[in-house]
Amino acid sequence: MRVKDLLSRLQERFGNTLQDARLAAREVTVEIAPQDVLETCTALRDEADFGFEQLIDICGVDYLAYGKDEWVTEESSAIGFSRGVDANSAGRLPVLEEELSLETLQTEQRFAAVYHLLSVANNQRLRIKVFAIDDQLPIIPSVIDIWSSANWFEREAFDLYGIMFEGHPDLRRILTDYGFIGHPFRKDFPLTGNVEVKYDPEKRRVVYQPVSIEPRVLVPRVIRAEGGAEEISAEIDEPEKQTED
C-alpha cells in the first residue's frame, strides 16, 4: 500500500473523526480529538486494512510560543558573535518573566501527544496527533490496553510535560526524582531548573538548594577570519603574484 493510498483509506474510514490528515515527512499524519482516541486506535490495530500492531513511540509536545523564533542569526556582528535573540520564553530568560505574557505566546491548544505506529504486515507507518482540551490540566486517554508498550511512553510524557493519561494503571515519574517539582520539557520551565543538588558534609547527605546559575542567552558563535569577508573574498579571487629574483 502506498502512502497516498493509506491517506485515502484513513479519510474514507474515519471521515469527520479526523480533524486533520496530511502527508508530512513522507508519512501520513492525522489529528484526532481525545474522545476519539480509544475507538480510532483500536480500529487501526485490528482492521486488516491498517494493521498497526506496534506502537513505536509516544512523545509530548508543548506548543507554547509555537512559530515564534528567538534566534535571528542571518546577520552577525563583525566581532564574531550574534546577539540577535528576541526572548519569547520565560524558561530561557527567567529575569524577563514580568515582561513576557504567556497569553500572547500561547496557541489555541498547547499540549499534545504524538503517537508513532508501525504496521509490519502492510509495511506502513502512521503518526497520530492528539491535543489535550484543557491546558491547565491536560488529559488524554491512555492507550495502554491497546498497545502495552504505551506504559513507559505515557509515563515519560507525564514526567516531562505533565500530560495526564487517563486510565494508566501506574502513572508516575520515570526520569526525574520522585520529589521533583514541575515538568522540565515545558517551554515555561527555566533551562537552569529551579533547584540544584549538592553534598552537605556537615549533614552527611545530599541536599537541595536554589539554583545558583545565572540565566543567560546562549547564541551560536560565528567564527570569522581577521580582515573581514571583503578581504577574504579578494584573496580568493586574486591569483597569487609571482615575483622574479
Question: How far is it from the N-terminal to the C-terminal residue, by CA?
Answer: 75 Å
**DSSP summary: helix tally:** 5
Q: Count structural domains.
A: 2
Largest sheet: 5 strands, mixed
Based on secondary structure, the structural category is alpha/beta
Please give the CATH architecture of the largest domain.
Answer: 2-Layer Sandwich
Low-confidence stretches: 93-104, 231-237
Number of strands: 9
Radius of gyration over C-alpha positions, nearest whole angstrom? 25 Å
Provide the helix percentage. Answer: 10-25%
The CATH homologous superfamily name of the largest domain equals NADH:ubiquinone oxidoreductase Nqo5 subunit
Q: Please write the CATH class name of the largest domain.
A: Alpha Beta
CATH topology category name of the largest domain: Beta Polymerase, domain 2
Question: Topology as H/E string?
Answer: HEEHEHEEEHEEEH
**For the residues shown, what is the average pLDDT?**
81
Strand content: 15-25%
Strand order of the largest sheet: 1-2-5-4-3
Global shape: elongated
Short description:
Helix content is 20%, strand content 22%. With 245 residues, the protein is an alpha/beta fold.
How would you describe the overall organization of this protein?
The chain contains five helices and nine strands, in the order αββαβαβββαβββα. It has 245 residues and is α/β, with parallel strands linked by helices. It has two domains: 3-63 and 110-185, Beta Polymerase, domain 2; 65-105 and 192-223, no CATH class. It is elongated.
